[in-house]
Design brief:
globular
Length: 232
């Protein structure tokens, strides 16, 4: 049996899922703030991009785990061809595993309050976790600069665009949300919409990265096959 994967078909399905999530979440927030005066409802929270442990969170975690799988596949192929940057692919797989774990367990949110109290941050740095995130981002760019330079130009450009979209959502919009939270709090429609933009940008960045990885495999490892071997 030959199992073929079409990057375009996969990306269309993921785009459709993201669009449905975004629309349903928006409707849930309109319903919450303009029909229930901001009161919590289980079904609203289940579909809201502004909440955790719900359908949007599960989708995002699964999409990040897809990145883990694809980068691991490329690592194995790069190892087979003795690519000198093979361990950079393994590093990406580990990074996405951490991101997916954080998405599922809501880890970075746990350090916001302690870090805020320790550093005395507010305004755009109200969500204090973005400070270590920015530091780690700089370290990542330095560590992966040569790797990015060595990539085929089309793959490199897609990776950079995907990273910028994801980073602007995760850190940039989080900073804007922090400023809004400082001024008017978090339990309001304005803050909810900032969170929606943040999450949609993150989903879009991951979606584009998955597409980029699939195209990279298609274009540079066209003969890649999988087999299950029984070793004694």
């Amino acid at each position: 049996m030959n199992l073929s994967i079409s990057p375009k078909k996969i990306i269309r399905v993921l785009i459709l899922i993201v669009c449905v999530i975004a629309v349903v979440s928006l409707v849930s927030q309109l319903y919450k703030f303009f029909m229930f005066d901001g009161k919590e409802r289980y079904l609203i929270n289940l579909f809201s991009l502004d909440k955790e442990f719900n359908f949007p969170t599960w989708y995002q975690a699964i999409s990040e785990l897809i990145c883990v799988l694809l980068t691991a596949v490329i690592f194995m192929a790069a190892k087979e061809s003795n690519d000198k940057f093979k361990f950079h692919w393994l590093g990406l797989s580990f990074i996405f595993l951490l991101i997916a774990t954080d998405e599922m367990l809501v880890l970075h949110e746990q350090i916001i309050s302690p870090l805020r109290r320790f550093l005395g941050t507010g305004g755009f740095l109200y969500m204090a976790w973005i400070i270590p995130a920015l530091i780690l981002g700089v370290i990542f760019v330095v560590a992966y600069y040569k790797f990015l330079r060595a990539l085929p130009s089309e793959t490199r450009n897609r990776f950079i665009v995907a990273g910028l979209i994801f980073g602007f959502g995760a850190v940039g919009m989080e900073a804007v949300g922090g400023r809004i939270a400082t001024l008017i709090g978090q339990d309001n429609f304005t803050y909810s919409m900032i969170t929606h933009v943040e999450e949609i940008l993150e989903m879009t960045g991951i979606l584009l990265f998955i597409y980029s990885l699939l195209l990279h495999i298609q274009n540079h490892y066209p003969a890649l096959t999988f087999s299950v071997k029984n070793k004694d």
